């Protein structure tokens, strides 16, 4: 027994929980600076320019200033106005951040984000940084700061007006989602006020499919303002970009937009916001707030737009460059390099200078930044692992679970550079916690008395059951008998214990051991819990499957005994044949030995025959005993034809006895299949005995046929009878347990057959034949085609042959 | 006891689908002084050389294709049926029923002692000689 407590042992404990009030400070080591999460909400999906540019702006600024926070981006609202979709998104995000400390929220443009803290059950005091058009006109909730994107499309039109001296019309094209209508209404109203009702064309409230025609009919002297586009009239999610792509074939007029995300896509330009700048601005404001500035005291910030025009569009529209308002940046001018790229070259120089300044700053803060990057890399690794592990466990058969669980824990340990990574059960019918799987594999090493077991038995357990993480720092090496367990003598270590829930109950603990104290970011802890829960769910499934398998095996055993009982006569016959031959041979030998000069050669031949017949009888008994015994399932690659041949031997005489016969047609070049041989024997026995029974009532008897052939990378087995067929009412329930059409049947044979086959990745199907009788088709996947994809794809066609 | 017959060897046809039985029982009959021809099926016996005639048939009851009793019934129908002894590895009552249909005959259940078969053959031949068709049915396995 190791000595756990005593002068040499010291435990330092700190636990993390979501509520700051229960956070305990470590006693002597400097506290690792905890990083909260800054949640960034963007109304379009990743991959869209708006999302990517804004995210890049925020992220670059956070990295540049090394803000003490972890960034997390979520796409929320915006795709659809469907309540269901929005609710699902909300549920997902809420669950994801349930136990995460949110230090600030950055929200782009969507007005619903003003109530997002309530919707996500986040603390109302979490600062909200909202950035949007005309934000200052909205009611400002408590603990919120606003960035007003002041310049609208109307301002853009006004600024660019010198370009359009003879243009009399202005069209406003926008979506029909509530957010779209709100923006478009403001744009339309402002335009009508400026140029008069008659000259404003309303292209809002259209289906996407209607847009090209309407745009095509616009008078040539129209300026098109491409406004907010979240969803069209039919509710279909759209973006300004998808709208632009749709109308492009019919678009002949000048088009103004409000941000740079679509620049270069066939729009003229306008006074634009660089979306990336919006991100940068939002991140700067977030940083101030994280430093302690109360958001309510920050005045509404206004962001100015930059006039930018695509020179190619000017040319296409026949607008003279001389009309371009001063201060406008012209992009893609087909002139000299300097003219064409001045803006970029100047920009490049300033970027270079900025970078120089940055490098100085970077060097100064390199260590801290490294830590940030390390945390980011760790987060990415863990998230990749979450994806991998959840994919791995989906569709996994229960017999592969053990290996997969161990493998996942090993990969987790590798990803986090942990010395030890394990899954413990808190309780499973027994009181002692148990390390059920882990890396390194400590099978056979007693866990009793270990640090983790001790913690799980005592003080850590209530915390874990409440769902809190627990960290144990084991600073002083235990004094222990090194001869007792030399390989397990750990140095100072720090343990992270994460509770894992399955169906709302904490059933186990994921443990990670590191040599040094680790900083765990809140999102990483969330990801780790997710992994723990995937693994624990698999573990519970394994246990449940094992229990079900035991039940199935009991029934299967009953079924085997029953079917062998039916074959008793056949078995007696099979045994009596070799016994008769042995007896005759033995008597001949005895007689020969009584004479003078016994014929040695003949005696040798006789004894060889006796031995062969004895072996044959023994084989029959072994075969029968294996069927009668409860056995451990041993799925190995086997030859279906060999099993079919054994079944034929068992059943042929029985069939003959009842006036039937069995035709066997064994296919060539069958791939091996992975299944327990006795179970397959049982399946074939059930099918063949059923088929023989089915023919018992028929006067003119034809042979039951058993055939095998290679099919779809596996083996197709057909058992065909010429009996009365399966009654139509029985077909749908044929494979249900305890369903039988036989007066003395148990009704378990086919149910068990199906369970056996499905466990091996196979399928079974029954059908009546047009020319009378019925057939059962069994398909089993070949052992060589072991990929799950193939296994999943093949059966669909495999049993239809 | 196995002892060669003093007189002309009795000609026996042994029909059994099991090669072990053909070898073992055939060997025993030969040793007892009989001349044995073996057949794997009833069809093989019936298709055999018509010039071959047998003093006694030893017929397995369950054969692939024609069964032993069916075969014997056929031989009786064409008036070409020597005395017969039936052997079987089954003990089901069905077997008895089948035998009833071909008239009285001795039936031995495998495994049997050599002496039992030799006596059955001797009795069958003797009874056929004294009272044609008058063999009595003896209990299978008896």
Can you characterise this structure?
The complex is a heterodimer of chains A (801) and B (142). Helices cover 43% and strands 19% of the residues of chain A. Chain A is α/β, with parallel strands linked by helices and 801 residues long. Chain A folds into four domains: 11-29 and 374-537, Beta-Lactamase; 36-149, 3-Layer(aba) Sandwich (Rossmann fold); 153-272 and 304-363, 3-Layer(aba) Sandwich (Rossmann fold); 633-801, Histidine kinase-like ATPase, C-terminal domain (Heat Shock Protein 90). In chain A, a hairpin with a 2-residue loop joins strand 18 and strand 19 (505-514). The longest helix of chain A is centred in the C-terminal third of the chain and has 45 residues, at 522-566. Mean pLDDT of chain A is 76; it is low at 1-33, 335-342, 345-362, 476-489 and 785-801. Chain B is α/β, with parallel strands linked by helices and 142 residues long. Chain B has a single domain (11-130), classed as Rossmann fold. Chain B is globular, with a radius of gyration of 14 Å. Chain A binds chain B through residues 569, 572-574, 576-585, 587-588, 591-592, 606, 609, 612-613, 616, 653, 656-657, 661, and chain B through 1-2, 18, 20-21, 23-25, 27-28, 31, 62, 64, 87, 89-92, 94, 109-114.
Describe this protein with a few key phrases:
heterodimer; A: 801 residues; alpha/beta; Beta-Lactamase; Rossmann fold; six-stranded antiparallel beta sheet; six-stranded parallel beta sheet; 26 strands; 43% helix; disordered N terminus; disordered C terminus; B: 142 residues; five-stranded parallel beta sheet; 5 strands; globular
Tell me briefly what this model is:
The complex is a heterodimer of chains A (801) and B (142). Helix content of chain A is 43%, strand content 19%.
SSE blueprint:
The complex is a heterodimer of chains A (801) and B (142).
Chain A: E1 11-16, E2 36-42, H1 49-65, E3 69-75, H2 83-96, E4 102-108, H3 116-119, E5 128-133, E6 144-149, H4 153-160, E7 169-173, H5 178-195, E8 200-203, H6 211-216, E9 222-226, H7 240-247, E10 254-256, E11 269-272, H8 275-290, E12 301-303, E13 306-310, H9 311-317, E14 329-331, H10 337-364, H11 366-393, H12 401-415, E15 420-425, E16 434-439, H13 451-457, H14 460-465, E17 469-474, E18 493-502, E19 505-514, H15 522-566, H16 568-594, H17 600-628, E20 635-638, H18 640-657, E21 662-666, E22 673-676, H19 677-695, E23 704-711, E24 714-720, H20 749-759, E25 763-768, E26 774-781, H21 788-793, H22 795-798
Parallel strand pairs in A: 2-3, 2-4, 4-5, 5-6, 6-12, 7-8, 7-9, 9-10, 13-14, 21-23
Antiparallel strand pairs in A: 1-17, 11-13, 15-16, 15-19, 17-18, 18-19, 20-22, 23-24, 24-26, 25-26
Helix pairs in contact in A: 1-8, 11-12, 11-15, 12-15, 15-19, 16-17, 16-18, 18-19, 19-20
Chain B: E1 11-15, H1 19-31, E2 35-39, H2 42-46, E3 56-60, H3 68-77, E4 84-88, H4 93-101, E5 106-109, H5 114-130
């Amino acid at each position: 027994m190791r000595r756990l407590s005593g002068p040499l042992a010291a435990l330092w404990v700190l636990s993390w929980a979501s509520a700051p009030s229960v956070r305990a400070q470590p006693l002597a080591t400097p506290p690792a600076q905890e990083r909260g999460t800054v949640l960034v909400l963007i109304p379009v999906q990743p991959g869209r320019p708006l999302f990517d540019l804004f995210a890049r702006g925020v992220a670059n600024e956070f990295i540049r200033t090394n803000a003490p926070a972890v960034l997390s981006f979520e796409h929320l609202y915006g795709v659809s106005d469907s309540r269901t979709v929005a609710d699902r998104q909300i549920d997902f995000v809420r669950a994801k951040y349930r136990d995460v400390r949110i230090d600030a929220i950055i929200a782009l443009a969507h007005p619903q984000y003003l109530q997002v803290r309530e919707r996500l059950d986040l603390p109302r005091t979490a600062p909200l940084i909202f950035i949007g058009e005309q934000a200052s006109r909205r009611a400002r909730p408590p603990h919120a700061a606003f960035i007003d994107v002041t310049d609208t499309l109307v301002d853009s039109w006004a600024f660019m007006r010198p370009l359009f001296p003879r243009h009399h019309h202005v069209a406003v094209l926008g979506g029909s989602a509530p957010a779209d209508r709100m923006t478009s209404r403001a744009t339309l109203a402002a335009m009508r006020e400026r140029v008069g009702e008659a000259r404003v064309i309303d292209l809002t409230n259209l289906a996407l499919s209607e847009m090209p025609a309407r745009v095509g009919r616009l008078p040539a002297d129209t300026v098109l303002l491409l406004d907010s586009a979240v969803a069209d009239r039919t509710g279909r999610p759209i973006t300004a970009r998808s709208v632009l792509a749709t109308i492009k074939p019919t678009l002949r007029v000048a088009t103004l937009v409000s941000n740079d995300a679509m620049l270069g896509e066939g729009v003229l330009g306008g006074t634009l916001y660089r979306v990336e700048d919006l991100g940068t601005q939002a991140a700067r404001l977030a940083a101030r707030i994280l430093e302690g500035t109360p958001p309510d005291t920050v005045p509404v910030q206004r962001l100015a737009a930059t006039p930018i025009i695509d020179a190619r569009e000017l040319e296409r529209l026949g607008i003279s460059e001389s009309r371009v308002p001063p201060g406008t940046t012209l992009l893609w001018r087909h002139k000299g390099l300097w003219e064409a790229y001045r803006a970029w070259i100047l920009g490049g120089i300033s970027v270079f200078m900025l970078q120089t300044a940055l490098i100085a700053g970077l060097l100064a803060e390199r260590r801290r930044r490294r830590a940030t990057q390390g945390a980011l890399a760790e987060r990415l690794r863990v998230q990749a692992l979450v994806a991998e592990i959840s994919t791995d466990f989906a569709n996994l058969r229960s017999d592969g679970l053990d290996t997969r669980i161990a493998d996942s824990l090993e990969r987790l340990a590798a990803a986090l550079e942990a010395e030890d990574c394990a899954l413990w059960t808190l309780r499973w019918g027994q009181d002692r916690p148990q390390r059920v799987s882990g890396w390194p594999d400590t099978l056979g090493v007693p866990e009793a008395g270990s640090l983790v077991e001790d913690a799980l038995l005592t003080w850590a357990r209530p915390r874990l059951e409440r769902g809190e993480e627990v960290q144990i720092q084991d600073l002083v090496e235990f004094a222990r008998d090194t001869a007792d367990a030399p390989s397990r003598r750990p140095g100072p270590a720090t343990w992270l214990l994460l509770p894992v829930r399955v169906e709302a109950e904490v059933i186990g603990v994921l443990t990670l051991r590191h040599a040094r104290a680790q900083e765990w970011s809140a999102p990483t802890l969330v990801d780790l819990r997710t992994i723990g829960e995937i693994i624990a769910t698999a573990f519970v499934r394994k246990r449940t499957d094992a229990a079900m398998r035991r039940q199935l095996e009991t029934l299967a055993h009953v079924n085997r005994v029953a079917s062998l009982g039916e074959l008793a006569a056949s078995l007696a016959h099979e045994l009596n044949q070799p016994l008769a031959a042995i007896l005759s041979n033995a008597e001949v030998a005895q007689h020969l030995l009584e004479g003078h000069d016994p014929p040695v050669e003949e005696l040798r031949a006789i004894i060889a025959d006796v031995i062969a017949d004895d072996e044959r009888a023994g084989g029959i008994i072994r075969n029968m005993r294996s069927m009668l015994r409860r056995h451990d399932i041993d799925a190995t690659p086997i030859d279906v034809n060999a099993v079919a041949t054994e079944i034929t031997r068992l059943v042929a005489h029985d069939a003959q006895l009842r006036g039937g016969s069995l035709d066997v047609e064994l296919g060539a070049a069958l791939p091996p299949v992975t299944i327990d041989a006795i179970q397959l024997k049982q399946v074939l026995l059930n099918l063949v005995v059923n088929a023989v029974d089915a023919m018992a009532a028929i006067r003119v008897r034809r042979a039951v046929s058993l055939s095998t052939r290679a099919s779809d990378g596996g083996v197709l087995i057909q058992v065909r009878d010429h009996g009365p067929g399966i009654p139509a009412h029985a077909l749908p329930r044929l494979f249900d347990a305890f369903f039988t059409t036989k007066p003395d049947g148990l009704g378990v044979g086919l149910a068990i057959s199906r369970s056996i086959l499905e466990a091996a990745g196979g399928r079974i199907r029954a059908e009546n034949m047009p020319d009378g009788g019925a057939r059962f088709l069994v398909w089993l996947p070949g052992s060589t085609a072991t990929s799950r994809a193939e296994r999943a794809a093949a059966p669909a066609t495999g049993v239809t042959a | 006891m196995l002892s060669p017959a003093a007189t002309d060897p009795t000609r026996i046809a042994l029909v059994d689908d099991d090669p072990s039985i053909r070898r073992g029982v055939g060997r025993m009959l030969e040793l007892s002084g009989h001349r044995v021809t073996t057949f794997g099926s009833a069809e093989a016996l019936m298709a055999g050389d018509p010039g071959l005639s047998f003093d006694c048939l030893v017929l397995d009851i369950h054969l692939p294709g024609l069964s032993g009793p069916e075969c014997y019934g056929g031989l009786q129908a064409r008036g070409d049926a020597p005395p017969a002894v039936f052997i079987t590895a089954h003990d089901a009552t069905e077997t008895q029923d089948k035998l009833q249909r071909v008239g009285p005959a001795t039936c031995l259940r495998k495994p049997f002692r050599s002496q039992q078969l030799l006596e059955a053959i001797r009795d069958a031949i003797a009874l056929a000689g004294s009272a044609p068709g008058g063999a009595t049915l003896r209990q299978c396995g008896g």
